């Protein structure tokens, strides 16, 4: 019963919009399903790693080591600013991407898309802090490492399913967003949102 409640809770958390969801959406719009899936994979690997750190107890050490935690936080701020600037630059380009001509344009490699997703999640200290704050309420103080891992990886798996839904949904709607104007709007909105996430993370210290 506790596990089922946690799974429902994880789903509610996963559907809340955040940097990972926004990055997956924009990657799919800009590069199609393949790029979106690789971005999602990077996010999932990083999320699983953060969950494993929390389950193993190393997450507590990192969270309590203020210089390390602050370094991660500011790295996250810098990366979100980078993503925001990148999106806004794409929105301003006069030769914006056109789905009809996408075959003639250079494609982002799977490795780069994977790395972009990984960095977006791993540099977000809120993910680790969330694991450390929430998991004990469901797992219990006497639970072993295997139970912690089960709950932590469930959180990551549910998040991956939601992101998969984003990729498939956006991929199915490519015709509706195929115009250059629509893509510029997506890039512009994503850029502003990334900068907003960066500002929020910067002032939380």
In short:
The chain has 205 residues and is mainly alpha-helical. The protein contains eight helices and no strands.
How many separate structural domains? 1
- Would you list the SSEs in sequence order as H and E? HHHHHHHH
Structural class: mainly alpha
Poorly predicted segments: 94-106
Integer average pLDDT: 82
Count of DSSP-assigned helices: 8
Helix content: over 70%
Q: Write down how many β-strands occur, each being a DSSP E stretch of 2 or more residues.
A: 0
Beta-strand residue percentage: under 5%
Shape: globular
Tell me about the largest β-sheet.
Answer: none
Distance between the termini: 36 Å
Radius of gyration: 18 Å
Q: Could you explain how this protein is built, in words?
A:
This protein has 205 residues and is mainly α. The chain has one domain. It is 80% helix and 0% strand. The chain is built from eight helices and no strands. It has helices at 2-15, 19-56, 58-64, 66-92, 110-122, 125-139, 145-172, 180-202. α4 packs antiparallel against α8. The chain is globular, with a radius of gyration of 18 Å. Residues 94-106 have low confidence and may be disordered.
């Amino acid at each position: 019963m506790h596990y089922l409640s946690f799974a429902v809770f994880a789903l509610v958390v996963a559907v809340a919009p955040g940097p990972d969801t926004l990055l997956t959406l924009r990657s799919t719009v800009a590069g199609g399903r393949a790029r979106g899936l690789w971005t999602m994979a990077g996010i999932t690997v990083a999320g699983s790693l953060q969950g494993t750190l929390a389950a193993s107890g190393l997450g507590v050490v990192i969270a309590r080591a203020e210089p390390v935690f602050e370094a991660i936080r500011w790295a996250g701020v810098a990366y979100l600013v980078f993503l925001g600037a990148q999106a806004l630059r794409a929105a301003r380009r006069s030769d914006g991407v056109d789905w009809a001509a996408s075959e003639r344009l250079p494609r982002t490699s799977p490795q780069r898309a994977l790395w972009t997703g990984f960095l977006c999640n791993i540099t977000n200290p809120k993910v680790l802090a969330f694991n450390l704050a929430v998991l004990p309420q469901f797992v219990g103080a006497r639970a072993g490492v295997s139970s912690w891992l089960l709950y932590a990886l469930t959180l990551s798996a549910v998040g991956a399913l939601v992101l998969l839904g984003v990729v498939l949904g956006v991929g199915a709607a490519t015709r509706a967003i195929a115009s250059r104007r629509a893509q510029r709007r997506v890039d512009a909105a994503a850029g502003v949102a990334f900068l907003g996430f960066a500002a929020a993370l910067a002032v939380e210290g």
